[in-house]
Amino acid sequence: MDRNSVIGFVLLGALLIGYIFWNQKSTETARLEKARQDSIANLNKPKEEQVKLDTALAAVVDSNRPVAAFGQDALAGETETVLENDLVKLTFSNKGGIPKTVQLKALQTSEKEGKNQLKEFKTSDGQPLYLQKGSFNRMGLKFPSAGGELNTADLYFAPATSEKTTDGGQRITYRLNKNSGANQYIEYVYTLKPDSYLVDFTINAVGMQADLPKGSVPFQWNSQADRQEHDMTQERLNNQMHWRLADKEHDYFTLQNRAEEKLGPLQWLSFKQQFFNVTLLAKKENFASAEIHSKVPESGNIVGQEMTTLAIPYNGASSFSFPMEIYYGPNHYKTLKSMDVSLEKIIPLGTGIFAFVKYVNKWIIIPVFNFLGGLTSNYGLIILLLTIFIRIIIAPFTYQSYVSAAKMKVLKPELDELRAKHKDDQQAFGMEQMKLFRSAGVNPLGGCLPALLQLPILVAMYSFFPSSIELRQESFLWAKDLSTYDSIYNFGFTIPLYGDHISLFTILMTITSLVLAFYNRGMTDQSNPVMKYMPYVFPVMLLGIFNSMAAALTYYYFLSNVISILLQWVIQTFIINHDKIHAKIQANKLKPAGKSKWAERLEEMQKRQQDMQKTKKK
């Protein structure tokens, strides 16, 4: 590995570490700044505004108060009804006419011989996975009444009526009748199709024009994310609110960074967890607006909570209908993309300054990963095959890097002579070095550019593996779950800049990186301390950063290092002929040296700098 190759890998490592540091720390900085701003704002708020905000963030309390405007159904007993298919199970209650619990049963991974291949969902401790459970989760229309504001989530609807749909799905209907007549009611209709996470949800109102506010009707939606994964820290980093506005613009915020948001007309709003989400999607007419409040509890097993008021458009007609869909399901790229509403954008496949790598994931990594997943269910083998595929793609760059390293190795004795000749005169050494490179036909950036061109692949993998739900709870060797770190020993305490456990794949990744650096030590400038020790410093720095990363990611980097070591040995031993390279360089020296415009400008700049230094010395 020549000097420029080392520079290339140093730049690559610096960019990668900077990206990881920015990705992990920017959320904490933003959260602290948000907390500071909120504290200032709260001090300046009127007392009634603080009470209003506290009320919005408070836990929902049960209400059985009499409601004079509605009939006996409003105070009836609670009954439950179930909608279920192979993927999801929804238990509805006539109190509020809403889902009481939502259990995710399985992920449809593929289809073979006309049958769905399902992967069962469980929490990290082996319990059934509930995406919605507990009294905090609820939704309902809000409208004024003589006794104050009513929320249909507090009222008892008539017991559900059920029916089968023509496509084999299930439909239930809840109706809340008004006292004054049978033709005045609010109705909720839910339809669950076979093999789908989507629930069609239609709100009908008949004869309620005197009760509902004209312009828009507030629809309250509260949802709570409970702990489901091994690493609570990663769950909270991925607990976000995403939305798509009427103009198709997508945006989001992380609950740890921000507490509230006001939005204009929007098509959908999603409460995203690390691997799952609950999303409300308007079908025919957009939501008029949304006001979001969120909360991250300081302790316990609650990851985050959101309390949102959506405005449903209403023109004051005697009857109106607002159809929407509710998605209760996994953050599975293929499933979300098939909905054709850009919901797949909630999956972080590339963000920040490296947002462009999402196209590498979408167009290359995900299709190849899915193809390999159809060949075998062993995800350790799939990652191995994916690593080999990626190495084949970047093989031309890798080969050119090794050829450049071989050329620099041949020129090393002459470079050492130039360095000894000019000693501390770096300007003179640089000019002579450029002349040597030009006469020998060597590109000084030959080792640097291939290294930088590999950066998009490295960052794409950094985004892809932790976000892939297919890897969730998939074991390989000692790793029980490839979507989180592979701990082989827990300390019981936290070591600063390292963590509270030992990740074996991270250790192997670091060892192979050091082996690769040691293998290349003879091709670096050993007289320069930076060039000599930098290849050993970066792997040690990455040790602490990657210790809490997904095992799939560190396993991939470990495999990539092993393949690099083997490739370098094979190419340099059996493919690259150093004698031929030396002969070719000597032949190039005999040719008339032609200067490119860039080389002429660089040489002219070096001459000016050298002249300036001589003038200063005089």
What does this structure look like?
- There is one protein chain.
- The chain has 618 residues and is α+β, with helices and mostly antiparallel strands.
- It has two domains: 3-24 and 356-597, no CATH class; 45-109 and 118-347, Beta-galactosidase, Chain A, domain 5, CATH 2.70.98.
- Helices cover 41% and strands 27% of the residues.
- It contains 15 helices and 23 strands.
- It has helices at 3-44, 47-57, 232-237, 333-337, 357-373, 379-393, 395-422, 426-440, 448-453, 455-467, 504-519, 529-546, 551-575, 578-590, 597-617; strands at residues 80-84, 88-93, 98-104, 106-112, 115-120, 129-133, 138-145, 148-151, 161-164, 170-178, 181-192, 198-206, 215-226, 240-245, 250-254, 260-263, 266-272, 276-282, 289-295, 302-314, 319-330, 487-495, 499-503.
- The strands form five sheets. It has a nine-stranded antiparallel β-sheet with strand order 9-10-11-12-21-18-17-14-15, with no helix packed on it.
- Helix 7 crosses helix 8.
- The radius of gyration is 31 Å and the shape is elongated.
- The chain starts with a helix and ends with a helix.
- The model is unreliable at 1-6 and 26-68 (pLDDT under 50).
